[in-house]
Write a structure and sequence with these properties.
Structural class: alpha+beta
Radius of gyration: 14 Å
Distance between the termini: 16 Å
CATH architecture: 3-Layer(aba) Sandwich
CATH topology: Glutaredoxin
Mean pLDDT: 89
Strand content: 5-15%
Number of strands: 4
Number of helices: 6
Largest sheet: 4 strands, mixed
Shape: globular
Low-confidence stretches: none
Number of domains: 1
Helix content: 40-55%
Length: 137
Amino acid sequence: MNEGIQQKKIILFDGVCNLCNGSVIFVLQREKEPVFQFASIQSEAGQRLLERCGLPKDYSEAVVLIQQGNIYLGSTAALKIGQQLRFPWSFFASIGLIIPKLIRDWVYKQIAMHRYQWFGKRNVCMIPTENLRARFL
């Protein structure tokens, strides 16, 4: 990972997934401070970041968190993101990390595996509004 990435908090998300897009909006509206940057895994920036993380270009587990050079996947990524949100979300995320990783990752994988079926899929990635564009890579 290069030095610039080491200082950032980046969320990679599935840009065609309705659940993932809704989650990005949820995070944007509830951050304690605007600390996250976002990139869809389908975008050029997302593909470069997946490669830097050692993940395949067709990675489909829905969310990756790159936080100060560390890479978090699955339920750990979702809960670490949640810890950066305002109360009560930060509290629930911290409690969630107490649940054994095996259990929370199983639940996460079930949701990730069925997310298109349950929540739908877009034909194109979300386009951020003008005032949010700087937050997207």
